[in-house]
């Protein structure tokens, strides 16, 4: 068993984007359409009529293979019919989704639903596996802060923290003592139907040097954009982040030194493993903040779609704190960014590999090719 | 019922691309991964373990909603186990797919299978519907040539040809007399297990003026790239195409004139409705050539994956001529290009609509806005 | 005078990207190449030989226009020859640039130089102008914090702060009293050759509702990625940002209400004008943190390219605090993101404008079209 | 001397695109803006005011380096003032450019000018150099047909034709005898102020196997889109192209065999070196048709921008046949596509190189890595 490539060049269009999937005898074929203007009346019949024109077995001069090719729209169509649809939940996507598309993102948020992250985590699992296989990259995230409970900076050793430690408790905090404090903090608001926010720290070990670009495509820019695309996130900081104002330049700079193995290293890592937009081989570490779940079991004032001031009380069960469940999503998005950047780096910079001396320490091993010899004597 | 937008900004990554789909309560959520390096060992279990970390109902401090989130890989994994996999079918993707990915595109062609076009046709149906709704665009393709049978240029009136006429026979040729000739030509090779190629003509009526770009994004370039991405296609020509060498410039130029309605029109349309990469409001017309189906019921020499010279006889049922079935695929790809370009045009050029005089004739109507007044007195 | 469009579809390629510019009789024609593998020996002669084959006036059967088309490489080639090139400046891009490309980013940082932002500011000026013209958008940034000096949250009224106020002092802080404190703080480190970091706040007024996307393309994700691509930035937060952990959900949610004008508004704006990745019509506000300039007038330990531990003392003149000069760059990148998102929104959602009731409040005015009538009775 | 990479991730935005260039001490810094809405009033002053805010040396607390950063708009602004601007030249971009942007592409065609191809040729020269260095790729184009003069298919040996042969005459036809015929044909129309079209053949030798993708990104699709983006081109065919209808499947299929060196080869190459969208290691060959130059020295009927029927007589000197000068542009665009695809291939498929047996014959040599050993025993 192996994952055959899903061929790249697999998305068509820039505005009205179509990604197709599936194989001749696989588990069905289909497409994902992105960017479609909203409120287009569409039924499966609209598509079926065209599919019927395409399918084989239509006549003696076509293949007589029997394929039904029955169209099924899995998602993307809706009916406005439930009560939630009638009012805008405070700090949810309901109102803005409606403002933009003129359709209520019903049924628990539509594309804005946290469930959308399932696809990210599935893809992230594959990216993690490849990064590990190629460079031994390890990506780990954990809960660093919830409400007023915050880990001391030295509570977690980035060099040695393990997945086991993180998964050893329900809030995914590698420090058992603080895990208990966080659980208590969450429980305190949970019982009264309220929620709290939190901060997740993510580290990536063994990331090869050289990932990222010096201008718009800085590695921290890619990571930041990926993290802020996670539902409920509202902040990102790489390395020392906003605390940077506590330092002067002479205090903050990461001085270089040669380690015993002959590698160029930095004594401190306030840059978070990235300098000038490019990874430097140190551990990459960043933080992401998450809002309190807006769905709470308490009455709130809001307005209805019909522009009436109304009171709203959320139904159903919600996380009193999303941070613990955000941990695997943060890891997945980090893996997707690093995988994307690793491929970009290989395409651009491994065509003529760098000289060994510079790259020896990194995960990727290089061989001295004739082409290289021709360029770098 | 209406198609809620599948939000754009819905594809993540540039090399390792992930498109997610699905909603909270829709028909499942998932992702399509493009660009993944081949031959990565992957099982559903690899993904399930991460999905389990993400899902709710894990503890008292998370939502106690019960969601199983069971991973199912629909396609993209394979096993090399059948006989076809052992030899490279002549002029199929077998060998090149293997050269590139190191995996045999088994099971009828994997991603190279003609069945992949199902996703294109489904998306094309939506694009057609929107283009019709917005501008009254009509896209029609038909079989123009098969083997030695070719329609006279004047056999089909681009202004009046209808879908009904095209669908009135099994080879999708709007001229009944030539349709019979084509059927006979196909049947002649079919009975001896051989196949023939053909040429499909596609026209688009009521395409607004102004679609396309003057440099790399010329409308004919977008259409050409789309058509050559259809399996078995090997040629594209817009307007007079390769026959252009029969003309001198003075014979070939499309002279402008003012029609009775006060529109700028061309007396001839050798440009095929596109000049300088941008649509001019005339009917867009182009041709696409298709190879004979490489799968034939005759013995052929080839080599096995083990590099042995062998004889190969295709199994199964195949189209003796793909052109008739390619017709809806050609229309669909044309619709995807025009839809993409219409959105691009609206984004760039309808922000401050052009003055009415110039645009009156086109499908899109414009209003004179205050912003416009400020710019174009 | 007006800016003729630089046609979109103006960048060719996905990995080896080429953007061309210039016109027949303009100020020269040329190209910008991105993604080129490093360390390729290249001279203008390599290009001239091909240009000479293309140019007119070569023979009687070509145009006899005289065009010299002399090749000039403006940037991108280098020589390693100065002293700085020999050692890696701490917390600069020197080392990582060298790790990635195998070339020292000499001459003040090459593409990593702060001077690269000139192109961003020039483009941002155009984006600002268009946003203002189309929707009355106003983008303003100012220095919020430097070292230990931080403005009280209520010191600046986002509704009324003006460019004049911001530009009234050399540190671009709209509060004169705090401006003096900041100047003092900067001066204190400047005199001893040290530097300090700072935080810049950016606001955008009159941003239309509906900009952004619900999934990967969330507006805050686009803004975050843009801000972290600015040299020396290392943190981004939208709305309440990392301070979000100070609130419970019931305290943090932005309740909706109907204002006197009949608009859906929020009483608070902790979301920073964006909910579910889409702008809600409130003022967009976010913060960006900047590191202390790594170039300081003090001895630092580092290593040379030859892997020797050495001491380094920066030459030249550097900003003791980059925050004030980062202000127009932050505004420019915000303008580029909003302009890009406005075009995306118009392409997707103004094809069939939303009903007036929902969109009335926003900057963009809509008319009820026949198409809309057909969809939304 | 070497070309330092122009970092990728160097283009910002998807609709309003900005590419920046230049370095700290290089030949100036700047940006290229693509996709800008047309008719925006813009002066250098609009940009200068922002640049002045950004530049150093503004005060004691900023760097006191003196940089003027004077804004210069090289192209993209215009004035409608000459006579040509008043009428639409038949089959030029004048009318469509005006329809789309509401500005006359004056001064010889603006962005539609053939001079824009200078940027393509310069970039193509670099791509050619890298392809040659990495894989020994040789890209050669030549004139195959002009008006009624057409080379016999066997007149040029794709294996041995050289640049010298092609450049040995002014029409770039490697067959001296036919070159003379072509020169005569061109001269015949030139003397009476008319023009003729032509067809250019392009071949690429030593292209590695495996370039391209199986779905939308087929190599022939990328090549086709690139060729149709060249001014005046109106047709593309790969391999047998439109002549494919002359063959049956049994006649057209390229049978595989093992050559003496143990390579998988095809006896014929009607596929043009690409099968299933992916290169197969045979010589890639395709044809591109070009219209007669629309600018002719003969009176033509057309309309003015004021919608009057008028007569037009072109001024200036023009190519009676563009094909010979299109040759280096065709080669350049082919080089840009192959370079882009090579990088895509390396990113995706060389992360874990294929086993040697399969790839031995291709230009790129592979080594068996530990990672590979782990996957392919």
UniProtKB/TrEMBL annotation, chains A, B, C, D:
<dbReference type="GO" id="GO:0010181">
    <property type="term" value="F:FMN binding"/>
</dbReference>
<dbReference type="GO" id="GO:0008652">
    <property type="term" value="P:amino acid biosynthetic process"/>
</dbReference>
<dbReference type="GO" id="GO:0009073">
    <property type="term" value="P:aromatic amino acid family biosynthetic process"/>
</dbReference>
<keyword id="KW-0028">Amino-acid biosynthesis</keyword>
<protein>
    <recommendedName>
        <fullName>Chorismate synthase</fullName>
        <ecNumber>4.2.3.5</ecNumber>
    </recommendedName>
</protein>
<dbReference type="GO" id="GO:0009423">
    <property type="term" value="P:chorismate biosynthetic process"/>
</dbReference>
<dbReference type="InterPro" id="IPR020541">
    <property type="entry name" value="Chorismate_synthase_CS"/>
</dbReference>
<dbReference type="Pfam" id="PF01264">
    <property type="entry name" value="Chorismate_synt"/>
</dbReference>
<keyword id="KW-0057">Aromatic amino acid biosynthesis</keyword>
<dbReference type="GO" id="GO:0005829">
    <property type="term" value="C:cytosol"/>
</dbReference>
<dbReference type="InterPro" id="IPR035904">
    <property type="entry name" value="Chorismate_synth_AroC_sf"/>
</dbReference>
<comment type="similarity">
    <text>Belongs to the chorismate synthase family.</text>
</comment>
<dbReference type="InterPro" id="IPR000453">
    <property type="entry name" value="Chorismate_synth"/>
</dbReference>
<keyword id="KW-0456">Lyase</keyword>
<comment type="pathway">
    <text>Metabolic intermediate biosynthesis; chorismate biosynthesis; chorismate from D-erythrose 4-phosphate and phosphoenolpyruvate: step 7/7.</text>
</comment>
<dbReference type="GO" id="GO:0004107">
    <property type="term" value="F:chorismate synthase activity"/>
</dbReference>
